[in-house]
């Protein structure tokens, strides 16, 4: 069954605790945190303290996506804050193999992220090291963007390589995910769907998540 990870980027920040509880009750498998630094991407969002406070109360694991320059500086802090998965952009990590190993040493799962314009082939040297590969299906930095269908060519390649070489990574997509694009992504081989606006603005999140998992 496909997993669903609501992106807190689209939540009501004045009622964040209630939003977390709502998504957990609706059957979410992870909570997705988009951590942005205003440098690697043109936006500023959550920090370590917020992750720690939510991790202490959340009944489901935290999937932390670091959209940061020099993310290796913050790995240990986010792991201590309670991140179950920490994902970093290959575009921000000149030493991606070492960075993934550093994440694993903390006990968190190690993820690597591809921007829409980055080819899947850039990951061939670290596919055995990755626990998760996140394909951005919009340009990172802001929520509410439209899904870029061409990005799924990377997912199809990564799914094929996983089968051919018995790799263990999960495939995740983030950006413009709704019930229709979720179906296209699942057909390409995706295991985890990150969805923000679609879930947090949906009149019935329980039904929305159940339909995405089918």
TrEMBL record:
A divalent metal cation binds at residues 32, 34, 65, 174. Keywords: Carbohydrate metabolism, Cobalt, Isomerase, Manganese, Metal-binding, Zinc. Its cofactor is Zn(2+); a divalent metal cation; Fe(2+); Mn(2+). Substrate binds at residues 7, 65, 141-144, 174-176, 196-197. Pfam families: Ribul_P_3_epim. The keyword Manganese applies. InterPro entries: Aldolase_TIM, Ribul_P_3_epim, Ribul_P_3_epim-like, RibuloseP-bd_barrel. One of its GO terms (molecular function) is metal ion binding. One of its GO terms (biological process) is pentose catabolic process. GO terms for cellular component: cytoplasm. The active site is at 34 (proton acceptor), 174 (proton donor). Binds 1 divalent metal cation per subunit. SUPFAM superfamilies: Ribulose-phoshate binding barrel. Pathway: Carbohydrate degradation. The keyword Isomerase applies. It catalyses: D-ribulose 5-phosphate = D-xylulose 5-phosphate. Its EC number is 5.1.3.1. Catalyzes the reversible epimerization of D-ribulose 5-phosphate to D-xylulose 5-phosphate. Belongs to the ribulose-phosphate 3-epimerase family. This is Ribulose-phosphate 3-epimerase. It comes from Listeria booriae. The gene is rpe.
